Amino acid sequence: MNSVRIACVLMVALSAGCSKEKMTELVDQAKETASSVAADVSTEMKTAAEQTVAKVESVKEAAADVSGIGDATGKATMTLDAPTEFAASYVQLIAVNEGRPSVLKISSSKDGQDDVFPAFLIQAKLSDTDLDSLVGQTVSARLFAQKQEGGPIWFSPEEKPVPVTLAMEEGNWIARIDNASVMNSSSDAETSISGTFQCVVHP
């Protein structure tokens, strides 16, 4: 690019009949102009490259946030009439009043306000007041699960709770139900279900 600019200057100078000294001066000016333009172009390219890198990093961070959604809300799967995935799974040990049993709650809803389906709720009354003390235990709990609003409900009768095994694996709370017998509200028939719940602790 610089050579082209200098050649153009020489052609103009020759056609105008300039002296040797004048031609040298014009060539020097052309060199300075070309160097300045090259520096400006280099700066612009560097700035554009830096902006591109920044945008790529921003996209990567956003992707990381999205990929981490499951970790922030937990997740669960159950075999109802077919394998069913639940978008969230929270565990909480609620101390009601002194002298009364605590309530272990595992649910697809954090606060019971959202109407997201499929949905499930597991509840057990316990004497424990510390969630960590439940690691390795199997508790008797009531289960309710519904795949869609208005659809049939899988549930365990009060007199026939399901066994739920609690564990801590790689820093994650895990609850499991293995071939437990439950009822279906649409048929009043017993059916066997299993489930794995990777829970996030809800304070």
How are the SSEs placed, and which strands pair?
Layout: H1 2-16, H2 20-67, H3 69-73, E1 75-79, E2 83-86, E3 90-95, E4 102-107, E5 119-126, E6 138-146, E7 153-155, E8 162-169, E9 172-184, E10 190-201
Parallel strand pairs: 3-10
Antiparallel strand pairs: 1-2, 1-10, 3-4, 4-5, 5-6, 6-7, 6-8, 7-9, 8-9, 9-10
What does this structure look like?
- The chain is of the alpha+beta class and 203 residues long.
- The protein has 2 domains: 2-67; 69-201, no CATH class.
- Helix content is 33%, strand content 36%.
- The chain has 3 helices and 10 strands; from the N terminus they run αααββββββββββ.
- It has helices at 2-16, 20-67, 69-73, and strands at 75-79, 83-86, 90-95, 102-107, 119-126, 138-146, 153-155, 162-169, 172-184, 190-201.
- Strands 1, 2, 3, 4, 5, 6, 7, 8, 9 and 10 form a 10-stranded mixed sheet that branches.
- The two termini are 67 Å apart.
- Residues 2-15 and 58-70 have low confidence and may be disordered.
- This is Lipoprotein.
Entry keywords:
single chain, 203 residues, 36% strand, elongated, Lipoprotein
| Residues in helices, as a percent range | 25-40%
Please state the overall shape, judged from the principal axes of the Cα atoms.
elongated
Beta content comes to: 35-45%
First CA to last CA: what distance?
67 Å
Question: What's the tally of helices?
Answer: 3
- Using only C-alpha atoms, the radius of gyration works out to 35 Å
pLDDT averaged residue by residue: 78
Strand element count: 10
Give the ordered list of helices and strands: HHHEEEEEEEEEE
Number of domains: 2
Low-confidence stretches: 2-15, 58-70
Structural class: alpha+beta
Question: Major β-sheet, in short?
Answer: 10 strands, mixed
